[in-house]
Amino acid sequence: MKLKTQRNNMVAVKRIFRLEHGLLRFMRALHLLTTIGEERAAHLEFYSSGLKFVVVSHHLCVILHIRPPLLLHYYQPPNSSKYLNIHLKEFCDLLRDKICTSSWMDFNLDHRQPPLATLTFGHDDCGEDFTGSIRVSNSKDEGDFGDITSTKFVSIDSKQFKRIVMEFINIDKVDVVLTNSQLTFSCEFNKEITLNVEDKECIIGGVNSEERVEYSIKFRPTKFFSDLTSMIERVWFYHNTTKTNIVISAPIAFEALFIITFMN
């Protein structure tokens, strides 16, 4: 009976992925999600293309999408465990405590009810490892947040993005005007920044010569956007014509990116 119980436990607990070289970058990205709400549970969604951490506030949805090969030995859980709620602060606390003494981390999932996630940390130079648990619960599909359906976009580098974020960081409404030749950010306090395609300050696509796209955004929470500027090289703004939402795509690596939706 004891042998059967041990065997069932091994079947129930499954390694979902391993992180090695991207461990520090992963911790920084997860910590950035906590600036949206430290005690907020993130939605963890598993797909064949990788996994998504999703955090939603009243005006913002942020997705951290991570794909193989950053995720080693990636295994997509069955449908019963495809959508989970996970406690971000517990996750980040474990990472912070163990990252300096670890060369890899396994994310494991116990499929029994209630489900349980565990992190196993180890180092290639020694046989010792440490396992800690994180609270999770079953969830459901949160919808199509982060889907990019538009061909209208503008791309700017991190230097210009940081300049814009710092200039408008405390403004509740930032007006954005996009044409096929320039991008302008402004507000009611007589602040304005204009970037021109001709001067190679931005890249614009999908906008006709007589077209003018207008929308408004705000860079809140301030810590999220100010910290994001140090993690990226470029950002892409997409204006979805079928919705009022504006989507920012911000890669932090070849296999990891933030997708930020402003929900107007």
What does this structure look like?
The protein is an alpha+beta fold and 264 residues long. It has two domains: 15-138, DNA Polymerase III, Chain A, domain 2; 153-262, DNA Polymerase III, Chain A, domain 2 (Roll), CATH 3.10.150.10. It has five helices and 18 strands. It has helices spanning 2-12, 23-34, 88-98, 158-168, 222-228; strands at 13-19, 41-47, 50-56, 60-66, 83-87, 104-110, 116-122, 129-134, 136-138, 153-157, 174-178, 182-186, 192-196, 203-205, 213-217, 234-239, 246-253, 256-262. It has a ten-stranded antiparallel sheet with strand order 9-5-2-3-4-18-17-16-10-14. It has a four-stranded antiparallel sheet with strand order 1-6-7-8. Helix 2 (23-34) packs antiparallel against helix 3. The N and C termini lie far apart (58 Å). Residues 1-10 have low confidence and may be disordered.
Ranges where pLDDT stays below 50 over 5 or more residues in a row are 1-10
Report the sheet-strand fraction: 35-45%
Along the chain, the helix and strand elements come as HEHEEEEHEEEEEHEEEEEHEEE
For the secondary structure, the number of strands is 18
Q: Main beta sheet: strand number and arrangement? A: 10 strands, antiparallel
CATH topology of the largest domain: DNA Polymerase III, Chain A, domain 2
Q: Give me the CATH architecture of the largest domain, please.
A: Roll
Radius of gyration: 21 Å
From the spread of the alpha carbons, the general shape counts as elongated
CATH superfamily of the largest domain: DNA Polymerase III, subunit A, domain 2
Helix segment tally: 5
- Cα separation of the termini: 58 Å
Please report the first level of CATH classification, the CATH class of the largest domain. Answer: Alpha Beta
Class of secondary structure makeup: alpha+beta
Major sheet: order of its strands? 9-5-2-3-4-18-17-16-10-14
Q: How many structurally independent domains?
A: 2
